[in-house]
TrEMBL record:
Residues 15-27 have a biased composition (Low complexity). Residues 383-393 have a biased composition (Basic and acidic residues). Residues 1-27, 383-406 are annotated as: Disordered. Pfam families: DUF3631. It comes from Citricoccus parietis. Residues 213-382 form the DUF3631 domain. Transmembrane segments: none annotated. This is DUF3631 domain-containing protein.
Length: 406
């Protein structure tokens, strides 16, 4: 199936007037609790917080015009058969105007669909359907990335009234959920994602999703959620939740929409979103500490130089620094890397990335290299613990102290 576009009317059986009256929308707090309970019946996540995350994300799809940004939901698992497709099926019955995309054959397809209104895009098997080797994926990922923020758009070729091709800006703004086994997402996409981790249900802890039996209840729940979010639309738009002090930049952009829904709901939900944000920030911090993030080579270089700098040295010749880097990190800079690091290559990256240039050794020797003091500001900004050196006199000690105290 290439792209299966499913409107709400296609998968949600609209209840009759009598059944609708017997299923009141209720308060947003009560409805979120019901959605949370529903998802936990059928989806097994690593932690209970991931269920709460799915609930808040499903709710925010109805008010993305008010939340300004819409985080990408990444549904991941440690192994196949962990319920990723099941999780997407339940989201399909809960979110705003779902659009199920198993494969995408054209990079212009999503903008064309979104031109007719906001949809919630649900992409299954993202590890295969978003294969970076596919030549159209650059355009698809551009749609996913730009559509993360209100006003996002991209040019698409369309035929005018005379049959001539012309470009037109089309909106890409839409909620997106991606399900797949550790999909190879670009870094700029990963920073826009909030992640749910599923576990295989070997012990039968969750119920089977027999849609013939549960679809009507799911549809009623979706109507309750839609009505509750519509009633809370103004509250969500006016909400200005206080986020953790360190939640800044892209981290703030992706969590604030869900925090606004949580604040509008009240009850336990503001505490839940605070826990989720702190967990995400801690995971990112651990990834940086363990070197698990896909950092640019220039960032690796500044970090690796701190690792190999000889304790006590104030100056290191370029050739010696390159040799130490190649020996310590052979797959990145040495013989096991694609090209291997050269003095000229290192100099180019340091100049272009940090405005750090080599100089002659202070002792008057002809060797060129770098002083410890040249790196201290960059190490500080990347939160790298600098190697210890013995300052050469009070002036250099004062410079080091000033840099550390900024």
């Amino acid at each position: 199936m290439d792209l299966e576009a499913i409107d709400s009317s296609d998968i949600h059986a609209e209840p009759s007037a009598s059944s609708a009256s017997s299923s009141p929308s209720g308060s947003l707090l009560g409805v979120l609790d019901k959605v949370d309970e529903w998802i936990s019946r059928f989806v097994l996540t690593t932690t209970a917080e991931d269920i709460h995350l799915m609930t808040l994300w499903a709710a925010h799809t109805y008010v993305v015009e008010q939340t300004y940004t819409t985080p990408r939901l990444q549904i991941d698992s440690v192994m196949p058969e962990s319920g990723k497709t099941t999780a997407l099926e339940h989201l399909q019955h809960l979110v705003r105007r779902p659009l199920s995309a198993s494969t995408i054959s054209s990079e212009a397809l999503l903008p064309r669909v979104l031109e007719r209104g906001i949809r919630t895009i649900l992409i299954d098997e993202a590890d295969r359907s978003l294969d970076p080797k596919n030549p159209i994926m650059a355009g698809v990922m551009a749609t996913i990335n730009t559509g993360y923020k209100r006003g996002g758009s991209r040019p698409v070729l369309v035929k005018d009234s005379e049959g001539n091709w012309t470009d037109r800006e089309m909106s890409t703004f839409a909620p997106v959920a991606l399900a797949g086994n550790n999909p190879s997402l670009p870094d700029d996409t990963r920073t826009r994602c909030i992640r749910v981790l599923l576990m295989p249900d070997f012990e039968g802890l969750v119920e089977s999703s027999d849609w013939e039996d549960i679809e009507e209840d799911a549809d009623h729940l979706r109507i309750d959620l839609e009505m509750a979010m519509e009633a809370a639309r103004e509250s969500v738009g006016n909400a200005r939740p206080t986020l953790p002090e360190d939640c800044k930049g892209r981290m703030r952009e992706k969590w604030r929409p869900l925090a606004r829904v949580a604040q509008a709901a009240g009850g336990r939900w503001p505490g839940i979103i605070n826990t989720l944000i702190h967990r995400d920030m801690e995971e990112r911090k651990m990834e940086r500490a363990e070197g698990l993030q896909n950092l640019p080579l220039r960032v690796h270089l500044i970090r690796d130089i701190a690792q190999v700098w000889q304790a006590g040295d104030q100056f290191m010749p370029s050739t010696e620094l390159v040799d130490l880097l190649a020996a310590r990190f052979p797959t990145r800079w040495g013989l096991q890397s694609t090209k291997g690091l050269t003095v000229q290559g290192m100099g180019r990256m340091l100049m272009q990335g940090y405005k750090i240039s080599s100089d002659r050794e202070p002792s008057g020797a002809r060797r060129r290299g770098y002083s410890h003091l040249q790196f201290t500001e960059s190490w500080r900004r990347f939160q790298v613990e600098p190697p210890h050196i013995k300052p050469d006199g009070p002036d250099e000690q004062a410079q080091l102290d000033e840099t550390r105290n900024r």
